[in-house]
Amino acid sequence: MIYHFLFKNPSVLIFCLLFTFYSCKKSVDYNQVDEQIIQQYIADNNLNAQPTGSGLYYVIDNQGNGAPPNLNSSVTVVYVGKLTDGTIFDQSNPLGATFPLANVIQGWQEGIPLFREGGSGMLLIPSSLGYGSQSVGNIPANSVLIFEISLIHVF
User: Fold this and answer.
1) Do the Cβ atoms of 143 and 133 come closer than 8 Å?
2) Which residues, in sequence order, are bridge partners of residue 122?
3) Which of 73, 118, 130 is CA-nearest to residue 99?
4) Which among 13, 154, 14, 143 has a CA at the least distance from the CA of 90?
5) What is the helix (H) or strand (E) element at residue 106, kind and residue range?
6) Given this model, what pLDDT does residue 6 score?
7) Given a cut of 70, is residue 18 above it in pLDDT?
8) Who has the most CB within 10 Å: 8, 39, 55, 64?
9) Of all helices (H) and strands (E), which one includes residue 78?
10) What is the pLDDT of residue 27?
11) Integer angstrom CA distances of residue 123 from 11, 22, 74
């Protein structure tokens, strides 16, 4: 009976075939994709980057000698945010931007405390610790984010 219904209604048959096809597609593991993108960026730019275990990588150019921030700290940071192709999507003014660390993306919450006041370096943030599958401004969905940062002040 069901076969008779499907073959008498070709549009229903096509819908069922398409539904079956698309429901069998495997989802993309963006953690794995991001890891490959970050590893390639590190190699291409000859960086001495260290992993944290969460997918975040960091480069410390200058550790700094002041206070280390924590999630409850507010910080002033001079930064440039780029995509892996070099496109700048955001940057602070030369005096920096001040914000509570608890109010920023997870990659910054984890990465900024790796520096002390006066420190500088780079954060390589996988999409899962950035904006994930959401497109935000000039940042496409599932983007790895590269931040060059200088931690000016911790309070």
Assistant:
1) no
2) 59, 148
3) 73
4) 143
5) helix 106-111
6) 42
7) no
8) 55
9) strand 74-83
10) 80
11) 51, 36, 18
